[in-house]
Amino acid sequence: MNRERSEQLFKASLERVPGGVNSPVRAFRAVGGQPFFVEKASGARVADVDGNEYIDFVCSWGPNILGHAAAPVVEAVREAALSGLSFGIPNPREVRLAQMICSHVPSVEKVRLCNSGTEATMSCLRLARGFTGRDRIIKFDGCYHGHSDSLLVAAGSGALTFGRPDSAGVPEALAALTMVLPFNDADAVRDVFRLHGKEIAAVIVEPVPGNAGLYLPKPGYLDDLRKICSEFGAVLIFDEVMTGFRLASGGAQELYGVTPDLSAFGKVIGGGLPVGAFGGRSDIMDMLAPHGPVYQAGTLSGNPLAMAAGIAQLETLEAENGWAKLEKTGKRMAETVSDILKKSGHDCQFNQIGSMFCLYFCEQPVHNLNDAKKCDLDKFKRFFLGMLEAGVYIAPSQFEAGFISLAHGESEMDAAAEAMSRVLVTL
Ligand code: KE4
Hints:
By secondary structure, this protein is α/β, with parallel strands linked by helices. 38% of the residues lie in helices and 15% in strands. The protein folds into two domains: 4-57 and 321-426, Aspartate Aminotransferase, domain 1 (Alpha-Beta Complex), CATH 3.90.1150; 71-319, Aspartate Aminotransferase, domain 2 (3-Layer(aba) Sandwich), CATH 3.40.640.10. Strands 4-12-11-10-9-5-8 form a seven-stranded mixed β-sheet, sandwiched between helices. Helix 2 runs antiparallel to helix 10 (304-319), helix 6 runs parallel beside helix 7 and helix 11 (322-344) packs parallel to helix 14 (410-426). Ligand KE4 is lined by residues 23, 25, 61, 116-118, 121, 144-146, 206, 210-211, 239, 241-242, 266, 400.
């Protein structure tokens, strides 16, 4: 495929934007080559500036659950824009979106809207620390919660459970307050609570981790986290930025029947515009300024256009029973892919739940980050590039999840399956 215009744009971008991109994963560093630049997108397809078209299985990392440029969302944003782009004053749409979030997610008694998933999870931590008066938190390896300092932390070496910075610029002293444990191992959590229970403000987890590919919680694991947090008075935070309003209208917490104390949201609730949200128990949420002592704020929080997009997206999902449709498409995709993999002779693992999936190039099942790290990254890279040339865009990293939307119909799924069969033969 000719990508001359994208190459020119990337060259120009590199002069003014670090790495040429505004978010690292877009740079294609994990798969080689250069990113293409999008001209326009519609439904399940994106077209680059050189006129190449791709079936899109990234969906802007989750937000475009109806497909790109979905008419109800575009119309709602257009109409809202005519009445003003930002007020910094309360507006009816932010009340409506707050009510919709609370009506779909029973554990969310109150919610605060913000502008990104990072803000949402960062604010959950500050709330939990303010509510409990404790400083330590627990996260899990392979889970990503955005780029706030307390969450850019890697597991300490060996038995040392205190975290170490996972990015330059994160102070050691702050990172040490974050303990990083293996996902799907409730005993490890219980052991740390026995040692530090009184100092731990919160446990934050992606109930279905989608940032090291995609793997699922083992039966009872999330229930164990709930029991341990209740026993020691720690706040259980579900980071549903990716799973919220995607895996079910009530998110992963509905699917697994586990009630967190706080939840973070983003992506789908913004309809493609910048939105985050965090909410949960009223007694915790009422700690937030101006009502309580925990400060949190945002110039564009509750922005009328972003609210209009989120409301239109959720209303469309409700009206079309979108979650049931996505469940069906996801199941059909898993059946098709497993048939293709059987015939291909490749050792792959295909993890799927609802409209999220990941094809791992490894022999053993993937239940956590260590399993995922055993993948053949070179084979994934060749698969990614082959699929791209075949007009199918999947996540440019083995350690990312894939997404389908309501716009992924039979023709897109058949075309992608056909491309997959052809590319696997070349690996
Ligand atoms: P944002 O700040 O990017 O809106 O959200 C951060 C975040 C928080 N929690 C979860 C579970 C997330 O998946 C994310 C962001 N996801 C990545 C995809 N792996 C966004 C893509 C990117 O960073 O460019």
